[in-house]
């Protein structure tokens, strides 16, 4: 065996170990985080009736999470760079778990708004922080798969939520608590336990991982050094410098359009689907779970395909077309079966284009700019995600139906597809100019 073959074997072993030792804990953390973020959609089927919340009140409160998230996401990632990923990610998880469980005490619109806002403040920075952390462990050619495996927790959270929400709501009356209160309590506290696990077991860097051999550590460090993690100023001037890259602006636009559309649908998904299909909560929960599993499968496939091909754009473009078609079927609602097909189609597209998008962030921002750049992209997206659920709820109250708001979802995806084509042409033109 040559030295190069030995290095390749050591690198492969190091990446495999990192995958098993790091990704499961972070992915479970993200699963719980995403569930705590959107479980209000199932809780609302009881909570809104109990507390007299209109669709406008609910939409505004649900969206406030994303306003708070966007306001402090960049500062959160600056602090992550200062204190280290292990401690900062643990802090995020413990705080959001306690606040997510505290949602059970909501009684008034103001309390609902306040806790949703605080939950957004607590969780801010987790997702882009993990994306940066993974870039310090996985070289570029292995990063797409790693990101896909981590991001897999997003649709799996939807699947898990669809399965367990009905039994949790059925606890209604136990210990003088309503079902929606049990849902918030039981789904919130696991984040605290996971946060403590991160604090105890997550290595800060490969150099501090006791389960890597010296050869594996050296091979991984060498591979990561091909794109050095330079220390940079992460203040306002650095932020403007990153956003001056047209590709970053386009990535932010695409993510804003797809995240706001997808999140708005998820936040009102049970109510929308019950109205469109005439089905009960159990059947709708099963459909949402099936959609989540379909998205999870496509995330894995997309991560593998984009790494194998060495490019992300073909997957991104095809997936956006599929997602658009799915939302068109839901908006048209020709029959319950076609609505169900639209949900599955949209989730397949969402799974694939989500992985392609996030992997592109790391491709465009190859050094420590990734921490601040990912936060900047996510900040812009979450600001738009604050506005759309509010407008969606207001449209429901004004018209008495979700139909008007549903047509915005395929339109937003068509705009995202146009932006993705421009991004592809921009990136291809840059490569040609560098040749």
Structure description:
This protein has 435 residues and is mostly helical. It has one domain (3-203, 233-434): Up-down Bundle (Growth Hormone, Chain: A). It is built from 21 helices and no strands. Mean pLDDT is 86; it is low at 228-235.
List keywords for this structure.
about 425 residues, about 0% strand, mainly alpha
Strand percentage lies at: under 5%
- What are the secondary-structure elements, in order, as H or E? HHHHHHHHHHHHHHHHHHHHH
What is the highest CATH level, the class? Mainly Alpha
Number of distinct beta strands: 0
Helix proportion of residues, in percent? over 70%
CATH topology: Growth Hormone, Chain: A
Largest sheet: none
Low-pLDDT segments, ≥5 res = 228-235
Cα distance spanning the termini = 35 Å
- Work out the helix count: 21
The CATH superfamily is known as MFS general substrate transporter like domains
Rg, alpha carbons: 21 Å
| Overall mean confidence score, pLDDT | 86
Shape: globular
Indicate the topology.
Layout: H1 3-21, H2 23-38, H3 40-51, H4 55-83, H5 85-102, H6 109-123, H7 126-135, H8 140-151, H9 153-169, H10 179-188, H11 190-201, H12 214-224, H13 236-243, H14 246-267, H15 269-277, H16 281-309, H17 313-332, H18 336-364, H19 369-399, H20 403-406, H21 408-434
């Amino acid at each position: 065996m040559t030295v190069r073959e030995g290095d390749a074997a050591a690198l492969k072993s190091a990446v495999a170990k990192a995958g098993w030792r790091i990704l499961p804990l972070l992915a479970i953390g993200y699963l719980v985080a995403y569930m705590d973020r959107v479980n209000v959609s199932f809780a609302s089927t009881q909570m809104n009736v109990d507390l007299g919340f209109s669709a406008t009140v609910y939409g505004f409160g649900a969206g406030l999470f994303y306003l708070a998230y966007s306001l402090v996401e960049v500062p959160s990632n600056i602090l992550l760079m200062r204190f280290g990923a292990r401690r900062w990610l643990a802090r995020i998880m413990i705080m959001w778990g306690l606040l997510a469980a505290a949602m059970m005490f909501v009684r008034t619109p103001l309390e609902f708004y306040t806790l949703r806002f605080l939950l957004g403040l607590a969780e801010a920075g987790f997702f882009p922080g993990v994306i940066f952390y993974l870039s310090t462990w996985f070289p570029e050619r292995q990063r797409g798969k790693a990101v896909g495996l981590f991001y897999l927790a997003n649709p799996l959270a939807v699947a898990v939520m669809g399965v367990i929400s009905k039994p949790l709501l059925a606890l209604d009356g136990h210990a003088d608590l309503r079902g929606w209160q049990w849902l918030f309590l039981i789904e919130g506290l696991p984040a605290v336990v996971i946060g403590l696990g991160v604090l105890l077991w997550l290595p800060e860097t490969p150099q501090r991982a006791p389960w890597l051999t010296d050869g594996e550590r050296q091979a991984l460090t060498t591979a990561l050094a091909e794109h050095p993690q330079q220390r940079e100023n992460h203040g306002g001037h650095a932020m403007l410098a990153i956003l001056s890259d047209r590709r970053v602006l386009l990535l932010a636009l695409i993510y804003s359009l797809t995240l706001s559309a997808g999140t708005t649908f998820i936040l009102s998904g049970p109510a929308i689907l019950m109205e469109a299909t005439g089905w009960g909560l159990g059947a709708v929960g099963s459909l949402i779970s099936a959609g989540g599993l379909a998205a999870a499968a496509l995330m894995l496939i997309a991560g593998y395909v984009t790494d194998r091909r060495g490019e992300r754009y073909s997957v991104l473009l095809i997936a956006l077309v599929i997602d658009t078609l799915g939302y068109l079927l839901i908006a048209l609602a020709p029959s319950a079966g076609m609505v169900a097909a639209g949900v599955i189609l949209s989730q397949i597209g969402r799974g694939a284009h989500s992985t392609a998008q996030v992997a592109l962030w790391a491709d465009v921002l190859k050094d420590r700019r990734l921490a601040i750049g990912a936060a900047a992209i996510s900040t812009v997206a979450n600001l738009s995600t604050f506005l759309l659920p509010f407008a969606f709820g207001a449209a429901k109250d004004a018209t008495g139906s979700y139909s008007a708001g549903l047509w915005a979802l395929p339109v937003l995806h068509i705009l995202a597809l146009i932006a993705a084509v421009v991004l592809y042409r921009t990136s291809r033109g840059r490569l040609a100019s560098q040749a």
